[in-house]
Amino acid sequence: MKDWRQDGRWDALCLLARHARRAKWSSAMLQALVEELYVDEEFARLLGNPRRLPVGRYPQAVAVALALRHSWRPDDFQRTIERLLPAAPRTCRAGSRHYPTAADRRRRS
Known about the structure:
mainly alpha
């Protein structure tokens, strides 16, 4: 492990960074992000299966995944929303009295 951290890790990361320049969004990449953030169940409840989302919705998916990851404390959630979506409606912000219901979500779809 010590050899990896001192010698191999940085070289492997540099190689990955060079190859990732040509990377394109994929359902596998989005799925990996959702799993790494430990938000897969709630993510699926909000947006559905990440493998079935069209690429055009990936920015929404990344924002939702990050917000889910930071939603356990109102102050952390607030900071995350302000960084990701500064123009988000007040109802999305921590401390809001209105939390969208399933009916609200269906109306917006």
